[in-house]
Amino acid sequence: MRALLLVLLLINLVFFAWSQGWMAGAGLGPVTQREPQRLALQIHPEQVQITPLASSSVMPASAPQTAPSAPAEPLSPASSDSAPAPAPVSAPQTAAADTGPTVCRQIGPFGAMEASALAQAQAALAKAGLEAETRNTPVPEQWMVLLGPFPSQEAMRTALDQISQQGKVKVFAPVTDRPRYEPGISLGVFSNEASAQEQLQMVKKQGVQGARVVQRNAGLNRVTLRLPALTSQQVKALSGVSGQLGGQIVKTCATEAAAP
């Protein structure tokens, strides 16, 4: 029994010496795989990191086989570390309301004598960050039986008192909204020239001298402020200044209102 244990111990010692290469001088020892030429070709082997795959089910596509190329110039650790990583490009943030349908709104029209109200409305829109299109439309034609203009306000009031005392002319009033005819007296306003001429003949028979027919709205325009493509956010901004629009209200554009 003791002899068997000694034999097993001797065998273990011999195997250990063989596996450690201590017997290589006698031609005995394990065969080792050595390729020193591959180690010489490695570029910064200490920078190589092995990262496990995120999922075993995802397999990378095989790269096409190409002819071996010469090894690239090694990058120094300083140059690789100093290059900043590109900043991620964020997608443009667009408000959901700006991608929806747009609406058309208009303000006015402002009359020929409402320049200050028009300026107030334009200033309010600019305050809300809105820019409106300005649309001019001719004022509908009108004809007026005019007495004057007089050289002064006193002369106009004197003529007005005479007409009032006679009591024959039923329609008369000072002209207050057409500077080109002031100071003057209107003896009637009509939508066509024929009616105005009939009124002129009537007031002449009633003793009024020096009256004439003039085109009341010649060269005058009315101004409409139009906002053709408002998003929901811009509609809210417009509502915020609705009380500052020169006495006008916000309306749907005529083209949209007429659509079925």
From TrEMBL:
Q: Name one GO molecular function term.
A: peptidoglycan binding
Domain named SPOR is located at 137-216
Q: Which organism is it from?
A: Thiomonas bhubaneswarensis
InterPro entries hit by this protein: SPOR-like_dom, SPOR-like_sf
Q: Where is the composition biased (Low complexity)?
A: 60-97
Report the protein name in the record: Sporulation related domain
Q: According to the UniProt record, where is the region Disordered?
A: 56-102
